[in-house]
Amino acid sequence: MKKYFFITFVSALLFVMPAFAMPADSSMNVEYGSAKSFDGSTKKLTMDLFFPAREKGKKYPLVILMHGGGFVSGSKEAMKGHCRVLADSGFIAVSINYRKGWDQGKNPYTCEGDIESFQKAVYRATQDAYAAVHFLIDNSDAFAIDTSWIFSGGSSAGAVLALNLAYLKNDYVKKHFKKAYKALGSLDVAADTKTPFTIKGICSMWGGLSDSTLINRKSAVPTIFYHGTSDIVVPYDIGRFGTVCDNYPYIFGSACLYRQTVAAGKAAVLNTSVGGKHGPKEYWYKVTMSNTACFFKKIMSNTASAHSLTSFRSSEKTSGVSNQHEIFLQGSSLNILKLHKGSMRNFIPA
Prior knowledge:
The chain is of the alpha/beta class. The protein contains eleven helices and eleven strands. Helix 2 (80-88) packs across helix 9 (285-300) and helix 3 (115-138) crosses helix 5.
């Protein structure tokens, strides 16, 4: 009997964003590059920029956001509401389009997808995220961007990209993703010629990372996480993409990455929806972005700390769950990592 799961991402496909009046200060469909896509065509890459009320001569922190969609669908317009909240909070918020597409097999709702094809899709999208940041840095004076404060964020597939921007580097992919590197070139094409940048904080909404050991005392970045415990697309803690596909790689979700970040001595916040699925309804953009803006500002003022927050869905029986959750979060991530040693370095279909 075939095992079925949903590979499309709720955040990108099922959330219908309300219509907004366009902010007074925004730049839409700005082209930041072009590149060959999955189908062999050359794709124009664009972004939308949303600005706070700006003062002459002042520069503002940047947040780059990536939409979800399983690396097959979605668009930058899905993050319009998110960007408005961040812009209202004093950030320059940017939503980007990136290349999508991979071989999902004859039935996209089963475990028939070509993993190598998927790995290349993630790789291409990460290349585009790097290119977008370099474009914004190159034009930082025109956009009034403070390049000392660059943050990344996204939902689902976009959260994978947000984490990749902080943790995946050329030296790492040369060793661990040789096929993608050989076929597609450098992950950060402009690394040797452009101004280097550092991601100062991350917002990961129901996303994951391919290798949890990428987060360590030298590399860890303060992060705010949002995730549901019943997510069957990207596991809340540790598991396989889609949870039922034994042929798909492991993914390290928010609970694991939260523990790893805290163990590395960096601030982190884990927002857990007990019983929540992929893209919990209570984590709509006004909630997530208001809290994210607050967290990012605390990073800038060096007052961010580590803590976890639990929300219960109305249909859930909550008796005893909170204490179990707290005990779970206090568990040693090192023991969990030891259990999965040797199977951690996989690109994550998220």
